[in-house]
Input
Amino acid sequence: MPQNLLAIEQVRFGSLSIPGWAVQPVWDFSQQYLSQFEEYQQLINAVQNIQITPEQLVLTYTADWEAIEQLKDRGLTLLVSDAERSRIQLYRRHLVESINDLSKQNGTNDQHGRQASLSRLLQEMFQFALKRSSLSDQASAIDENKALLFVLAMHLGGRNIDGILGKPAVEQAVLLKNGPKFTLRKRVDLAQHFSISAFIAAAAGDGLAQATGLFKEVSDSKGGSGFSFADLAADQAGVEFGTMAVASETSAHSLQVHMARITNEDDYMPKLSSLPEGLQEATFKRQYGTTEDARYTRMQNELDRRIDNCRLYRDKG
Output
């Protein structure tokens, strides 16, 4: 298969849309990395053509079942080291334990359809991260934070990571599926925006995360749910959070200490009062022009001000 067979225009990650220009370098790097594995080369050489539409993917290939089974056995573990996979497994297990504890605190083991503040889950998870980071001088708070944010984003985004970790036990799977829906400002979608942006910022840098959040909102203004400055505030707070989580070992540890005792969403999530939402494209252009317009810049400055006023980010320096 030619190396440039796939030219990426857009990638959807849950409710987020990522522009192709931001993803293409990651795709190209992954191809270079995976090409060192014989099983992957065998599988790629069998591919004749790929057609992708919003509804389906059509793959034309010459079957080499032995190579396919070999790659299936290794799956996404090609992209994750043994140490990273072990760390992620620990955080998924603790996520299950945390959800179970929160269910018991509410007096029931059946939380299906109920909601809980994301702060409660973050406190449980970061207490675990802080403990692990303190085990030895060689422990890395940055590595712990990355694993935590990955597991959190995958869970809140409804993504399946069995390909990396293997399927969880039945009782774990039930808790992950039927546990409470975690919220920010009493909204499930804002918790998703925040956690996914935090993970992207921690894993790939704040530039990609910022672009992803803005691209999603602009896309929504074109016939979707509409441009939402509240969603954008959650995205950008998540970027600030994720950046702080990996900026340095000192910063990563400071975040763990703060979040291990977090009780108030105000510490890390800005207030959303009077932020416009549901703006369709025509309305957005009439009120704010483009993202280069001074009117939009004033709104962005207001978001920055609200985020900077959050205690976690205000105290980071």
User: Anything to note?
Assistant: The CA atoms of residues 70 and 139 lie 34 Å apart. Confidence is low (pLDDT under 50) at residues 108-112.
